[in-house]
Structures are given as C-alpha cells and as structure tokens.
Amino acid sequence: MLSCPRCQATIEPTTIQCPRCRLTLKAHGHPGIPLHRTEGDEPLCATCLYDADDSCNFPQRPHAETCTLYRSVNAAAELTLPTLSPGRRVSFWLRNHRGLVGLAGLLLFSLLLVLVR
After folding, report:
1. pTM surpassing 0.70?
2. CB neighbours (10 Å) of residue 23?
3. Domain that holds residue 90
C-alpha cells in the first residue's frame, strides 16, 4: 500500500487517481506508467540523469514538476555493470559476429590454398 503525495490517503500501487483529492498518480491514465513528481520547490530536472547528460527533450525542461521518464542522477550512479574478463569479451564478440568470423575464416582458408599450390 502507498500513500498519496498530496493528501496522504492510503492507495493501491495501481491507482490512477487519488480517490480523495483527485491527484493524478499515473501518466496518461495507465496504471503501468509512473508519474514522478517534484517534492518541494526544486524541479525534477535539477536531479535528473537526462538533464545532466543533456539528452532530455521534454518541453517543460528545466522547470518540470512532473515527468514520466525521470531517472535520478544518484540512482544511476549506483547502477554498476559487471566487468567481464577479456576472454568473456572475446567470446561474446565472436558469438555476436558469426558472419564476419565465418567470412574471415573462408578468406584465410582460400589464401592458404593459394599459398600451398
């Protein structure tokens, strides 16, 4: 159970609009699209990852108080991808470029045949 950010009423996580104060809680009337809201006077853009890397094209930028794409700069810094060993990187590259590896192998085989004769 969650609470409404405006009136603190208890609501379900999929509630689209607060039954007490009528605050819209989900974007575009869809329970699967969260609508992020600013807390206090500071706009969301001040702490948004997309504003920090200048990839945001939201029309209300830099003064957005609500946003569906908001990603916190702090939360993004905490996400770390696992590092792969060089052997695993080569294995992934070979698996993803099978056609290129096959073509290179065919070219080397042809070159070997020419040199042997």
Report:
1. no
2. 16
3. 86-116
